Amino acid sequence: MNDAPILAVDDDPDALEIVRTYLESKGYRVVTATDGREALVKAEETKPALVLLDVMMPEIDGWEVARTIKNSTDFKDTRVVMLTARSDFTDKQEGLRAGADDYIVKPIRLQELGEKVERNLQARERGQ
Predict the structure, then answer these.
(1) Phi/psi class of residue 86: alpha, beta or left (left: φ > 0; alpha: ψ in -120 to 50)?
(2) First to last CA, the chain
């Protein structure tokens, strides 16, 4: 299995800590960022296997970060999962247009998070 990290991005430090702690307890290596600009820098530095990406953030929102990652050949194998309180169908459509591979609605249920992380990492391994 690839040792590339998971990049978790959220401007809510408590939510970010919960996600990081949970994933690390499952054996994943996790890198964190607290806004879109930092997310793009960390993505460039670490080449993550998966990005867990909050939508509503200052400066650069999650949609734009997803588009930037998905439009870069450097990240052609990187999976993007949007994490957001925005659960409307139109929000999910926007996520898909931005290139998101999956979507988790907040509040995050840790079992769902674990399942979606595993499913997306497996899809990445299969080259999907």
Answers:
(1) beta
(2) 15
Question: pTM here?
Answer: 0.92
β-pair type (30-33, 50-54): unpaired
pLDDT per residue of the chain (128 residues) written in tens, 0 to 9: 457 999 999 999 999 999 999 999 999 999 999 999 999 999 999 999 999 999 989 889 999 999 999 999 999 899 999 988 766 767 677 777 788 999 998 899 999 999 999 999 999 999 87
CB 69 within 8 A of CB 33: no
Q: Per the CATH hierarchy, to which homologous superfamily does domain 6-125 belong? A: Response regulator (3.40.50.2300)
H/E element holding 69?
helix 62-70
